[in-house]
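User: Structure please.
Assistant: Input sequence and predicted structure:
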Amino acid sequence: MDWNLFWSAFGAIGSTLGSFVTAIALIIAIKQYKQPLKKGIDVDIIPVHDWSSSHPLTKLYCVSVKNKGIRTIDIRSICIEYDDIPIAIDSLQYKDKEQILLPCQLEPEKCQDFYYEAKEIMNIFARIEKEGISVKDSKFKIMARDTFGEKYVCKSKIKISELNKW
């Protein structure tokens, strides 16, 4: 038996196996590198009431934007989405609460609340209905957009016609 041929074949098999394991390690390293680059934003809407001594009880919607990722995110706008058409509501923030100027930075693991008067939101849908478009059976969707233009939507199960009861 030619031992030189044996050890050459054994070395070739070892080199091939080593290359294969290195390729797997490279793929895993790339996936781990890209993982922190993913953004994680959650958008929720909560009905709340504001009561102060100078005003009667006011029904509000609190749009809560949470950064669940590990990168700072710039929130550019808050919109109501109707038939895939965003309607900006940034200027309708409730005046008696802290006004948050947009765009605003949202640090990792932080949350920012935006308050909107329910009456103002319902006025938007009333204006849409005046144009002859029925919105009563549509679902209420609110979204946040970041500076890259990506949309993060809160799809509530409530219909627009049920918003006053909510």
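The longest strand covers residues 55-67.
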